[in-house]
Design the sequence.
């Protein structure tokens, strides 16, 4: 946060050792998002790594559980929180770990259906509580209203046409 009447940096500027406040509020907000992502994502990645998967692999498993039925690789790619450039390889790794099964569509051989395996369901069940606990540790100090406002602002930042 900058103080217009003072040239002493506060907030992120002070945190990263700047001698002056940010010139642009947009730059400060952008860097705050990047810094926050870095701080929050590292503990999530560690949790996933401790269970033998990556964040993107967890995202695929989460999508499959949400559908409850086989999903095409194309649909999974469209629903990823963070896009993955090589979705077929990501799914292949999950299949090699026996967390998903794949089936080619009989009508269109280009389409591959992916289904959550029993082992994949068990892993997600095992991760549910530790992940919920991690989210509470990371963001539980914010009120429900703050969290809703933060989510709304981040959505608006991604979708300027909705503002």
Sequence:
């Amino acid at each position: 946060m900058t103080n217009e009447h003072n040239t002493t940096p506060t907030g992120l500027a002070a945190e990263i050792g700047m001698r002056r406040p940010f010139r642009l509020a947009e730059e400060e907000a952008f860097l705050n998002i990047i810094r926050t992502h870095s701080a929050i994502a590292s503990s999530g990645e560690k949790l996933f790594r401790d269970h033998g998967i990556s964040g993107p692999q967890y995202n695929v498993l989460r999508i499959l559980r949400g559908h409850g039925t086989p999903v095409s690789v194309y649909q999974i790619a469209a629903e990823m929180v963070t896009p993955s450039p090589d979705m077929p390889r990501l799914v292949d790794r999950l299949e090699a770990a026996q967390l998903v099964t794949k089936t080619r569509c009989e009508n269109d051989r280009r389409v591959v259906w992916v289904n959550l395996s029993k082992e994949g369901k068990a892993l997600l069940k095992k991760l549910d509580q530790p992940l919920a606990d991690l989210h509470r540790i990371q963001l539980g100090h914010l009120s429900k209203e703050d969290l809703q406002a933060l989510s709304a602002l981040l959505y608006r930042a991604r979708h300027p046409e909705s503002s």
